[in-house]
Amino acid sequence: MKKKEGTLFRDAFGNFHFVKRFLIFTFGCISYNRYNGFNQLKLKGTEYIKDLPDKRVLFVSNHQTYFADVFAMFHVFCSVKNGFINTIKNPIYLLNPKINLYYLAAKETINKGIFTKLFTYSGAITVKRTWREGKKKIKKSVDLSEITRMGIALNDGWLITFPQGTTKEFAPGRRGIVHVIRKFNPIVVPIVIDGFQKAYDKKGIRIKKKGVLQKMIFKKPIKLDLNNDTTNIIMEKIMDSIEQSPKYYKKTKN
């Protein structure tokens, strides 16, 4: 199957660039004070991403809210694109956003309300959870068409993923991400976030508390040997890198 490619006017999924630019600018203006106003976002390690190639980069991160984490990442990536390191204090970057930026979102979450549907246009790739449907636990095989869509996103730009697939701290990683890495061999960059759960509700839209210091740390790309590393080893490396593995759980309890 031939993969789609972005054009001068549309992204790899047929979304118009000018609409994405408008939405990223609008959402960026609305959310700016959440990260550089009544709340603050402390950044570290964005020097590791400033020289990354424009395509085939996979970001793996822990997850604390449905949308606030992603809003913040859009700010950071657009800021870095415009030459600012470890800061989002120059919102002029919103006039020149990174539009070949995509992120994974649960279909059941993204389909709720006009606001989230608009945000989908900015770069969401919707996927069905294979282990849960609503509050009911299920067990389904990975939809191969979803992996194909992730590949299309990677071939067009950068893709943000949340390997745990939930905002629950120290939840196990889902192996579907390893299938994506094996198939498309992207550069894999870890992100560790904190403070978002304290500041916002689960959706990441309603403000729970002001004066919160949120943190986002970018690390060096993970070294993977796809020929020799087993799926378990790759998964362990990912979970260690985003500080969600058992050893980090033990540290929080000590």
UniProtKB/TrEMBL annotation:
The keyword Cell division does not apply. Residues 57-196 form the Phospholipid/glycerol acyltransferase domain. Keywords: Acyltransferase, Transferase. Pfam families: Acyltransferase (PF01553). GO terms for molecular function: acyltransferase activity. SMART domains: PlsC (SM00563). Pathway: Lipid metabolism. This is 1-acyl-sn-glycerol-3-phosphate acyltransferase. It comes from Blattabacterium punctulatus.
